[in-house]
């Protein structure tokens, strides 16, 4: 097989099935988050309520992350992923019930709101296991020489689903309402579950089965903090996402600033993912391995600029372009980070390292949503977004100054070693 083949990972049947599973789950999850955001803000008209959605998911996701990584490294990955999808299906069905017209008419707004928050909290528990399981399963489906290519296609699939999920959410809210939008989400979770049966069970590569939990967690944390490339990439992305979480405030921009309704909301929410998906598709032919450190710094700096432009814009299409470009540069960041993780993580520690990644980056999305909600409440929506973008720029500058080794990071040699 040609190791430079941009479709190398796609030549493995189970990897294609895996991409279908990942697409269906990300599509459902991203669509569900958008529908929840819209419903909650429509019910409360309070920016802080949007931040609480993120907080309700991030608390269990962070508190359970390390323990989840330990479990993932100890268990068979295919069946564990099935349990995660089943858990998500139960949550999405619960949200479907909560959005029934009869339920909304019967119960007070506060009761329904608390019910939504409770289900989002349970979703955070599921997500604590979902990310590490998916990350670990990729390495068991394709050979090592295709890891970088598989990471790119997996990230691209994630972004494509992130494009279509929010876009469909915006239009489905307008045409069929919140309730039946939840039904679509539940259907996609069932598609993911059915497809996963086509993937066979995988061996457990961890030689330390039954290892004490705290010893296992200590080993995983020590590895991350001693591997500077991983630690630098995670820290930079975490802070950028934490302060650049303007997407959590999009319902406010759509309804109160740009006045574009649910259809415009769907376009705004999908714009970053469209930009990221285009970047990722391009990277299958033009890899980002060389001078990865500098590219990552420039990408995060560009992300901060885009957030500032978006925050100041009062024109719909300028806002869409700013979000599109933010997604394009964020796609560069995501590909480089995933490539670093795949290349530098041993097979027996993938669950724990992925859990630390979810604590640093994945959960910072929700924590960033909470930060945006709080700052919007205190400063005003526009000021909060500009503040976040400015903090992102300062983070990049500080990282470039204090970590010259990270600026010089180059993954070309690592890629060649895996391909040989």
TrEMBL record:
Record's bilayer topology term: Multi-pass membrane protein
Superkingdom of this protein's organism: Bacteria
Gene3D superfamilies: MFS general substrate transporter like domains (1.20.1250.20)
Keyword Ion transport: no
Principal localisation: membrane
InterPro entries: MFS_trans_sf (IPR036259), TM_effector (IPR010290)
Keyword Phosphoprotein: no
Protein name: Predicted arabinose efflux permease, MFS family
Organism from which the protein derives: Maribacter arcticus
